[in-house]
Amino acid sequence: MTEAPRAALPATITYPTAERLDLVEDLHGHAVADPYRALEDPADPRTAAWSAEQDALARSWLDAMPGRDALGARLAELMRTGSVGTPVWRAGRAFYTRRDPDQDHPVLYVRVDGVERVLVDVSALDPTGRTTLDRWTPSAEGTRLAYQVSVGGDEHSLLHVLDVDTGELLDGPIDRCRYSPVGWLPGGEEFFYVRRVDPALVPEDERQFHRRVWRHRVGAPASDDVNVHGDGLDHTYYYGLSLSEDGRWLLVNGAPGTVRRDSVWIADLHGDAELRPVVLAEDGVQCAAWVAPDGRLYLRTSLDAPRFRLCVADPAAPTEWTELVAEDADSVLDAVTWLDGHLVLLRTRHAVSELHLHSPTTGAHVGEVPMPGTGSLHGLSTVDALTPADRDVLWFGWSDFTTPMSVYRYSLSEGRTELESAAPGTVALPELSTQQVSYRSADGTVVRMFVVSGEQHPDLPRPTLLTGYGGFAVGRGPGYSATTLAWVEAGGVWAHASLRGGDEEGEEWHRAGMRERKQNVFDDFHAAAERLIRDGWTTPQQLSITGGSNGGLLVGAALTQRPELYAAVVCSAPLLDMVRYEKFLLGRLWAEEYGSASVPEELGWLLAYSPYHQVRPGVEYPSVLFTVFESDSRVDPNHARKMCAALQHASSSDPTKHPVLLRRETEVGHAGRSVSRSVGLAVDQLTFLAWATGLDL
């Protein structure tokens, strides 16, 4: 096989030795080997020593990769664009986040009468950069703010309340509030929120679960909170909540784990305040419900509509629905908001955002909101009942491949969309060509893929970076990415495939890539790679792949199923041992997505593709870099440890040309991180892939 040209690195490589157990279990008639189970325990001295050796090995290679300094400088420059968030309006006050060019984290501001003030700056609270702002919600009057922070990437949010005018801390920290929604009651003295129960009351392995909806009075001890909802329900339920603008109607939604089956309850707080069901998870549909300013209950649902439709009801008779806007055959209904007597519907058409205007009376389509281009919308916002002006204005966040997160303003009366707040930094961007292409997967299904390059058409095969996700109904459209821009600017091609398992084409698209149909996702990915090669964009020796979390499972399966198709892999925070994934952290919540090893038939599905169990000795595997985060509270790093040891033992590739490395980080988790740490991670990942595919950085 012809190798991509690459710079010379250390002439030899010796992998750390991991104890290889002769451990084979009989699971439902399957002989399942698990030679590296000892690496599941991070406290085991052998695991700690092995991990330290892997750290040293990874750094000896990654630090020697050519182009690191130049790439780091360019990535930092591309991230100096900063970002600005969509404003949330309360009584004429605008609340929003902004990250300026030299800031590591976004800062939360309030603007009152044209004057901007800082409300929460996590960098000031914690100069080490370990603290992240997880969520924030102002009261209806805009005088109080509930906000949540977590430390070291653990996502165990601490809730605080401050006085917006004085900055005085009024309440908190209240612990166990992981990304809790907050529903303020009028007056700002009380709110509803979601919190896990006292860990002393539940088994140790269930302490991340057992959530309840609580009613809290500001300044009172959390131990006095009233348990509103959750007793007697599945202990894995995640809850959301909202209140109507007048504070009368409380809506609570919930779903067991990450499944796409919703329960919705509604309560009249001016009546008996009892939460009554609107729809239940056992009905097997998705449903988001809210009471709009016109006093009606609106329901965005997948019932009889996998691409979703909009229904209405009287809140006092919430189960008597009338269809208002039917399902569209070629787009997915993602969100709805009220705008001065109109409904604004956010749709995505093949992962590209659109906004449409409809009549709330008849549901008829009455217009389309002009969009800035072909991109992705992030957040819709209109003024609240207490804001005196701008009642016909819609604000929305926007991004595409060359536009950092910015805010646009649409005026209903003027029929015009204009830039409200650009990203605060200015950066020279490379000339790009972006396109969306279609291709057929192994079973003939049409799949779409974004391709970003310096040329409109292939001029010669180039180092290419292909990515995707393909799970949990998570989709991704065009968006600004410093790593994408840096890769393409250096002469590479970047591609993102909209795989089954996501939501780009609705719930049927999601279901076509889950459980016994998971192989469809991998087939879609392989077909994307083959399309890039067939069109002349790249070759197998120049093709790299990357994915994180469920996307880490994707690339783990790709490298074990088609090792000859890919030159290099970055596998980040991955799921890889699909036999034991349910035993760690949040894994038990994902059985409806993947299947459970406790069920004989479903174990067969999992073993068919489980990357750890599909590693075979004597196979020439590509170069692989695992990146994991020790404070990850979702996916246990033991997946990457075990897979790394298995590949290092099995691969017959020359390790000086196709190394298998494990990069660890501490005090950072699965989600938010500082810009500086993002740059550091991206430098290691991109220089590794560039070296392996011959891209000159």
UniProtKB/TrEMBL annotation:
The keyword Protease applies. PROSITE patterns: PRO_ENDOPEP_SER. It comes from the Bacteria. The keyword Cell membrane does not apply. Its EC number is 3.4.21.26. Gene3D superfamilies: alpha/beta hydrolase, Prolyl oligopeptidase, N-terminal domain. Keywords: Hydrolase, Protease, Serine protease. Residues 17-419 form the Peptidase S9A N-terminal domain. Residues 483-693 form the Peptidase S9 prolyl oligopeptidase catalytic domain. It catalyses: Hydrolysis of Pro-|-Xaa >> Ala-|-Xaa in oligopeptides. It is an enzyme of class 3 (hydrolase). Belongs to the peptidase S9A family. PANTHER family: PROLYL ENDOPEPTIDASE. This is prolyl oligopeptidase. It comes from Saccharothrix hoggarensis.
